Sequence to fold (695 residues):
Amino acid sequence: MARKSGFLVLASVLVASIASFCGSAAIFNPISDAHRSAALELFSPSDGSFGSLEETYEALRTFEVLGIEKELVIRTSVCASVSETLLSSLSTLKDLFQALRVNGILKCELNDKAFVEIASRFKDSLNAANLLLDFYHSIGGLMLIKDQTSEVDVHLGDADRVFRSIKALSQSDGKWRYSSNNPESSSYAAGIALETLAGLVSLASSEIDHSLIAILKNDIMKLFDGVERYDDGACYFDEKFVDAHGHQDPLSASSSVVRGITAFASATEESLNFPGDKILGLAKFFLGVEIPGCAKDLYHQIDALACLENSRVSVPLILSLPATVLSVSRKDQLKVRVNTVLGSAAPPLSVKLMQIFSSGSKDASVIDQELKFDPEHAVHVLENLPNNIDVGKYIFSFEISLQDPEHKKRYITGGRTKVPICITGVIEVKNVEIAVLDSDIGSIEMQKKLDLSGENDVALLANHLQKLRLSFQLSTPSRKAFKPHQAFLKLRHESGVEHIFVVGNSGKKFELILDFLGLVEKFFYLSGKYDIQLTVGDSVMENSFLRPLGHVELDLPDAPEKAARPPPQPVDSYSRYGPKTEIAHIFRAPEKRPPRELSLAFLGLVLLPFFGFLAGLLYLRVNLKNLPRSTVPATFAFLFHLGIASVLLLYALFWFKLDLFTTLKALGFLGIFLMFVGHRTLSHLASVSAKLKSA
Fold:
């Protein structure tokens, strides 16, 4: 238990140090196979369906972006639901919109006549619409029909009027309202509005008024002015509005805005100078979520990243490291990957290591070294770490440079990227000594040198007038003095009482001196054997250890009457609830039996009367002709003789197996049976004899 508790303390300190170190920098990794596994687990069809059409679209869209081919499994049932929804006159605008979204992925076989009727219904709804979601479903539905068939006219002649109706729901901060009756604004609604207006621009039969487009561009910039930002550069749109549709969290709100701005950028030919650092920050926010725990959050994450990668908005490039823990003892190489948010290959570029910041210091080492590109593994490699890098925690600053000037208009690198890196190594432990000193003059009474690379079991003797000294030195692979996060000595009394002391650092070496005269009260005046254990650990120390050194036999004075008593020790749960010792049962020794020959002789004597009975029957010339010949009397006679045979068999069983009590019960039953059948047999013989005499 002591060893386990020591390791728990060691682990907790290391985790806390790593967490505090990584607060100013973070690592963002592109979409990976882990997201695909999560999608297959979260979007699991039940009875051939994912649920509602909205949930089905979210699953299919996620699978489509991640390249998971699973739609054939549910194609038949989903297409039937889509067809039924589109042909039903009771379907709402939202139902029609969701059905068309699903059909856009599955390409179900539908009649163009159905599209004509649905398009007419969407156009009619725009004339009376006053809710943002009604505009969204109607215009979004017409856009989906436009993408799925060319036989239906979906263009709108009064696009300017509809544009102004939707724009009337906007707010001065770039957010939007769901309706004119609700004063609360929402970032999620802003994304829906931008996506709706983008569709309206595409559906307009004539060009939209440029002044309206300019006003909308200004609203988008205001919306970006209110973006929230983390210390690691991640950006998101907060959402505090709660309506009948429920609360939208920052993930869904940010995803909605990304869908809106990318759709608007694709619909208009004008240049949109979106702030590149905030676009990259949004990508970092979605990647920083890592793997969401629910299906809808995963959809929002994947769909937003797909929109960022496949639109006219600048595509973010993500710098990631396959390993952020490098060992100088193993001479690990620093490897860097640059990909798009979905993990696609980046265009030709170069990566430079610009600066290295040491943990807890604002000073940086200027490196300005370009990493070598490995085309086989698509990584940029720094073969040798700088000479001034020793074990510790650092922040490496990288800079990405695109080689093609045209790519600078297409991709966002975000300037310098800071990544936390932990450099580990094997720490040398040397000059380990433990000694017992005289308390007055400090002379060495007993001294032992230890080798912590092997087993140690020193035995020391000390009293309350002496001191215990432990000293050792730690050095890094580059021969520099090393100061670990923790170094402490533990003394454990044979009664279970433990005492822990921190080993101090004097600069060149670690040293601890225990004056037992001042520790007698802390030791509760307990004399006896104390086990010695040394623990040294650090997150960058590859050979952290918890090592027993031996024991010291302490002779302390007797405790005074009012001295504190040692606290009760916790009961070991294993000894209390663990398996008990096995119970050994003692059975009675088997009794002695007679020899086998004597038993066989006795059996022969028992069977001798039976053979005498048979011989007597032959000698008396028993006549079996008087056995009854009628069916019923013959049956009773047969049962009577069978009962006699059963009695003889019972005697045999009693001899070999049965006990007396069981035999007597069986014999009583057979006796009653024999009395009954024998009486009927004798009655029949008596009646036959009487008839013969009368004749």
